[in-house]
Amino acid sequence: MKLNYLFMLLPFLSCTQQNNLEKNILVETPINDIITLDSIQNDIYSRDVFESIEFIPLETNRSNLFSDISDMLIIGDRYYILNRSINQVLIFDSEGRFLGTFDGKSDVDEIQFLQLRKSNKPDLIYVRDGNTSSIISFTGSGKYISRKEVKSDFYSFAPIGNKFVIYNHYLTREEISKGDDKKYLIDLIDTSSMKTVDSYIGYNEKSIYKGEIPNNWKNFYECGNELFLTIQGQLNYYKISEEGILSTTEIKLNRPNLFQIPNDFIVNPEYFGKRSEYLDRNKKEFYNIRSIFKTKNGVIYTLGNRSRPINLLSLSGRGNILESDIKYESDTKTLPPISYFVYGSDEEYFYSYYPSKQFLDAMNEVPNRNSILSENENLRSVYNKINMLSNGVIVKFKLKDVKINKL
Length: 407
Prior knowledge:
Helices cover 13% and strands 38% of the residues. By secondary structure, the chain is mainly beta.
């Protein structure tokens, strides 16, 4: 039996049917936590935020050239990097040495690599294949194991226990109203039988959603033993399990010159069929959470709009700041660790990435470059090793577990 677990958490279940008539995508859950970004905090220095910053150049040869990262996994002492433009998953060790690539062919057809996912089993990695609606298993060394077909077309997925949680493609109004079955955004399927065992986040029959807001290729973020779900058109995210939605966290931007979409952007009929037009007119309004990564000392959120994303740091015991507010004074002797996005984390470290050109440009623009290079052996080694045609640089950094002094 399909249940909408979002409403199971509400204390007023008797109102569910009435509310369904007025809602677009049903994502009503109690807000369990609110992350608020208020006024600018002055005098936040990088030495007070980052405990360590390490730059790791990725080995370059003719068979592994790439520019940007589409997806990334950090498993043990290996980096798994997906680049969709060359349709390869490349494997590097913790020193940046190139170890190989994933098999590009399976028992059916050539694989189009769209997403990478960790498994709860050792030496097993899942891949979303774009040529078929399927999930493919690989060994940690990139050897093809097997393919599992998913009945629905879908954007993204994540393993959770002995299930896959599936984020389906958005439906048109015609697709939603077709047939008598309730339509859902999220399906939970058994990894053995690949049958749907539950669904949640339902659609209203009057919904217009498909094509309005381009979706991320990634909607699930594994942070240790926790799995988070993000949905386009919201600055909320959901902690989920096999039982459904466990909690909801909302991000509020209360600072001057930071704008966000209305809270009811997804559910208010006023925006039905007009969301893309609205976002085109309001390019600076933040409308989604692009990524969530967490270590024991904090969480980094990337928030997206149609202009330029921002990175919000929620620091354990110290509050919430923007990465752009951090001052990289001359005695830091390094570059900012976040070039644009954060691509992954483990219990201790976050991982970002500089393409080679961006890294060299950043170094050449630093006023105290010679001083930095003379005192930072790691940075000097990387700077001397790469060129404009090299693969880029992974940045491995750790947040400091100390309090920031604020004015």
